[in-house]
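Worked example

This section walks through a single chain of length 504. The input is the sequence exactly as stored; nothing has been trimmed or padded.
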Amino acid sequence: MQSLTRTATVDGTEAILVTIESTTTSGFAGLQLVGNISDLCRDGKERAKTVLENLGYKMGHKRILINFSPADSRKEGNHFDLPIAISLAVLLSTKEAVENTKDWLFAAEIGLDGSLRPSRGIIPLILAAMKEGLNGVVISAENAKEVEALQQVTSLHGRAFRFLCFDGLEDVLKWLFEGMAPSSALPDVRIDDVEKPDDFDDMFLTPDLQRLALCFAIGRHSLLLRGSPGCGKSMFAQRLPCLLPAVLSDIHIDCLRIHSLVTDRIPDSILRGEPPFRSPHHTCSPQALLGTADQPGELSLAHGGILFLDELPEFRRDLLEALREPLETGYLNISRAHKKLRWHSRVQLIAACNNCPCGYMDSKRRLCLCSTQQRLNYNARLSGPLLERIDIHYRMPELKPSQFSKSILKQTHRLLETVETSRHFMYKRWGSQTDNASVTLDQIFESSLIDNNRRQNIMEDLEKLQVSSRSTLRLMRLARTLADIDRSEGIGFEHIREAAAFRP
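Given that input, the structure is written out below as tokens.
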């Protein structure tokens, strides 16, 4: 007799379906697992065996072989506990299963008390089952929040795909052999409200800073803030997420995939579709920032949202240079000897730094103690190619204490209104899937009603500024956003001049 059960193994942000075959063979009694299995997965057979014996399933003096196919794919994860247990139960049971186990995907860890526990990577597993056309998934009830969030953004195209969430293995076996499905496939879950993000009502914004915040939120531009210590760089950066809208459905699915790989309980803010905000410390390792062939880093965890790098020059030089391609393409390619992988990394970069090592160059509050060589060495930590990829460069002003503590009621509300109307103005031109930070130069000129003569004049003026072709593109993207803030179909010279003032 043989039993077949389906599960999957995670490979990057995707999942590969795995068929588990169990059969009895001649030889010494025991359980043997074959098929390129990790130690974590191999431990699952002991948990599954113990719980099944407690439920009355006796192994006896049998040699049971459990094969994981395809054999060349690495089997990683604690979610293999449940499919191993189901495969053994079908093999050992005297009853015939009501459901065909090869038409369902099983994924959950099993505790020694028989409870089903959540697993990492549950989102890619579910999406793989949908793509394969299986009947549904059987998972732990503790993963119900992720399922609820996924259902809201995933189209089933009329297919009857089912999500069954159970608390324990005994309940799964009752459903499998007796047809006793849970009263509710998905238990009642509520994605909790988190604390309201910090906003600008408690921060004084100069007209330039208001304009800057609008450009960031409307056009999705990257930003570098320079200034002396305590001038509000970090405070300003940490309040910018309050102006961003929810991520689009395809980006939301990508966020769920990526965050599912690093935790078995995705934060409620990600489940609701809020843009991620990641702020790694400047001493982080390459693996922590960029990720590995098996695990996403901070860059990918910020996909669809903000990556805030405070004290930018203090990061390792090789880490900063590794950001150049992802900032341009929105992807990070990882190449290893036996594996190649692409992580999503479309982020809005916010970086902050001082003007010099002591921080007080050009400050009115304190005298700078740095030598000329120290300043040159400090600024040399940021390469020209990296700085070119940052759209907006701004020196934060030093405000007086009376200004800095001044709060303006409903300032955030007014900024949000401007962001909403300006983004609607932009979407009428590009559609809701595109923003100004990702369009080409030809698209900008064509949509802005700029004829060839005026285009040539603009390019000649930009040549006088001695900017590169990349800087020209980013400058015109920023000018397009400034025109959108002013509700202008065309880009005026005043918008180009203002955009040029924000360039390095």
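What to look for: The radius of gyration is 28 Å.
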